[in-house]
Amino acid sequence: MLSTHSSATGSLVIHSARVVDRGDIVEDGWVRIDDGFVTARGTGSGWTPADEVVDAAGIAGPGALLTPGFVDIHGHGGAGAAFDDGAEAIRIGRDLHREHGTTRAVVSLVTASLDSLARNVGLIADLTETDPDILGSHLEGPFLDPGHHGAHDPSLLRHPTTADVARLLDAGRGTIRQVTIAPELPGGLDAIRQIVAAGSAAAVGHTDADASMAVAAFEAGASILTHAFNAMPGIHHRSPGPVLAAAADHRVVLEAIADNVHLDPHVIKLVFDSAPGRVALITDAMAAAGSADGHYDLGAVSVTVENGVARADDTGSIAGSTLTQDVALQRAVQAGVSLAEAVRALTQTPARAIGRDKSLGGLRVGMLGDAVLLDAELRVARVWSRPRLLV
Known about the structure:
This is N-acetylglucosamine-6-phosphate deacetylase. The chain is an alpha/beta fold. It folds into 2 domains: 5-68 and 362-385, Urease, subunit C, domain 1 (Roll), CATH 2.30.40.10; 70-354, Metal-dependent hydrolases (TIM Barrel), CATH 3.20.20. Helix content is 27%, strand content 28%. The protein has 11 helices and 21 strands. The chain has helices at 56-60, 87-99, 114-130, 162-172, 188-197, 211-220, 241-247, 265-274, 325-334, 339-344, 348-353, and strands spanning 3-6, 11-21, 24-34, 37-43, 52-55, 65-68, 70-72, 77-78, 81-82, 102-110, 134-140, 176-181, 201-204, 224-225, 253-256, 279-281, 294-298, 301-306, 309-312, 371-374, 380-385. The two termini are 32 Å apart. The relative contact order is 0.18. Residues 1-7 and 387-391 have low confidence and may be disordered.
């Protein structure tokens, strides 16, 4: 039975686990958390008494794994709730994903009017002050290529202007963590520079960019590729496209949706092999994650979910996912990705992509005591998270 715990105050020791952290696996490891921060680590029985002592193997069985809390930098909802629909909907969706190991998340918004987006990023800015598991917002639109709009309403797409970008950034009050943009749009490269200068990450996505345009975007400061391969040109031997351009640039993190729908398992492995240490496993989850098949809304787009696959009613495009990050971990490992690298892609790498890896995404001394206990089949047994994020 899954249980979610808060390690806000007091001391906690979790022992007898394979600790998987930042590319390493430590056998028979233990981690000590005091007042929500990691204060010590070791192996064997070298831990000292604590207010709460958790025998990882006793709870999760032989081969129990302890990892840092998962960080999702791109998700739209869950448990029937869409993140575009206000604070209560965001909290409902976050509760669902927290149970699956996602202790911190960026709240992604689909394309909408500027008024609506400005209002929502302001609301999310407020939530970052009261709900410490919310890291900020991600604007996936409106500055997208109409030819690669996916599940975004093409009538609401627009070219970036300095004034429009500034309005949204100002409304976010420093909490917009990333903005997805098609760099080939008029004003696209200037907008990337503007986004980065404001302290947000610019992400190349929903784009018709070829490799040279993608390189120009990365030179302008873009540092993320939004859901690699999806809503962009693929790889051709005479036209390598944005994925290979991103893989070749050590500054760029590639988002991957490891649900075996957005990416075939062979392609999941290819992404990891092409960009070692630079893959962020995201959910891109919409409201149907953790819910039944049926009809849902994703922003202004009507979506039908059948057999767990979400598609826009009008175009048939894949419309987000029903993925949770524990399942992404399972799918990545099944695809042949090493356990250590798959965990890194859920923890350290996404935290680094939004500039939070000094406090999040690891179980090193001084870092926040967010942790996930999994069994040998990579199923979540327990989740711990500190309720105050101090970065």
